[in-house]
Amino acid sequence: MKILVTGGAGFIGSAVVRYINRHTDDHIVNVDKLTYAGNLENLAEVSQSDRYAFEHTDICDRLQIERIFTEHQPDAIMHLAAESHVDRSIDAPAAFIETNVIGTYTLLEVARGYWQELPDERKRTFRFHHVSTDEVYGDLPHPADESGAEHHLFTETTAYTPSSPYSASKASADHLVRAWSRTYGLPVLVTNCSNNYGPYHFPEKLIPLTILNALEGRPLPVYGSGDQIRDWLYVEDHAHALYTVLTRGKLGETYNIGGNNEKQNIEVVRAICDLLQELAPPSAGASFQSYRELITFTSDRPGHDRRYAIDASKIEHDLNWQPAETFDTGLRKTVEWFLANLDWCHRAQGNYGRQRLGQSR
Ligand SMILES: NC(=O)c1ccc[n+]([C@@H]2O[C@H](COP(=O)([O-])OP(=O)(O)OC[C@H]3O[C@@H](n4cnc5c(N)ncnc54)[C@H](O)[C@@H]3O)[C@@H](O)[C@H]2O)c1
Fold it and tell me: Which residues does ligand 1 sit against, CB inside 6 Å?
């Protein structure tokens, strides 16, 4: 099968491309604009493969997207290209509307025209897989505010109440994808996933930023009291889940993907500090003895969601998918990867200069 992956040079997209290249015989066409978040270094291991092609293109460019469909004749689309950072969406939402809404619309329209012209056999097996986030569901009650809150989870039928420009743009895209299925019959799949972490995570997000700031002895800012809860999933488990849904998911369905790892942001930051303390202790001349001393609390993000937690039982039962990593094993692998790849981090940071300190995703 030939799969057109959008956003394949990003954090999750590159994990998907590497997964497909390592574990299948499929061909991949990676369509990526290479924004500050796109990095072809993430794909060094696949770049020479004769099953991989790269198209440096904006998904909003309809003529180019039509050319790519015509030239490559894909059997399936995995759509990951997006502006993905919540803090950036608060400061400058326009790019989020462009890429996440207009870009998704453009892909849907081109895919629809292409799919309608396919011969019957290929038309039956074609699929458009839209990759989305649990942030479209808004937030859940927090155990600190409400007893029994821990029993509330996002399911595939939870109503959409997005809070940030990022999550609103992703919610819009999800609605468009479902409308193209309902109205035009386009064969679609939608997945909504919790916070990812792991190798090649762009160093503006909470986990990589905490690792890098700690190693430089800089403050480790935590929004509010740090009690916001996120549900963490190791990125390679997400890549496996996405390929599982693409190949075995039921058309028209939505699957929530999560790692059953609810953690408060402050717990995540402390766990990173403790791993660094073991793996890369502060030098004798450092002005601090424990990385935990660097934690500082800052004013909270506007509209900050209190808690996300995914009920992933549908994908577990229907498609027999389970995450391979616990939060402890995945976080240890992640910290080890960043310690071994500090050059990659500094080059990635060079793409956008030292930003103000972003948190969460
Ligand atoms: N990171 C998470 O925790 C998370 C969780 C759930 C869902 N998601 C979703 O997964 C997808 C990938 O997220 P990520 O964290 O890898 O993002 P990322 O920011 O690391 O990567 C996005 C990629 O899309 C590319 N891109 C951006 N605009 C483009 C455009 N107009 N045309 C073509 N390419 C463009 C970028 O160059 C980059 O390679 C997104 O759709 C995101 O909403 C992310």
Answer: 6-7, 9-13, 32-35, 37-38, 58-60, 80-84, 99, 103, 131-133, 170, 193, 195-196, 202, 361
Q: List the single range of 129-133, 319-323, 349-353 with lowest mean pLDDT.
A: 349-353
Report which of residues 33 and 356 the model is more confident about: 33
Name the burial class of residue 346, with classes exposed (0-12), middle (13-18) and buried (19+) by CB atoms within 10 angstroms of its CB.
exposed
Query: pTM (2 decimals)?
Result: 0.96
Of the pLDDT bands very low, low, confident and very high (cuts 50, 70, 90), residue 356 is very low
Which fold would CATH assign to domain 2-200+232-260+308-324?
Answer: Rossmann fold (3.40.50)
Domain ranges of the chain: 2-200+232-260+308-324
CA angle 265, 101, 238 (to 5 degrees): 45
Point out the residues that are catalytic: 134-135, 166
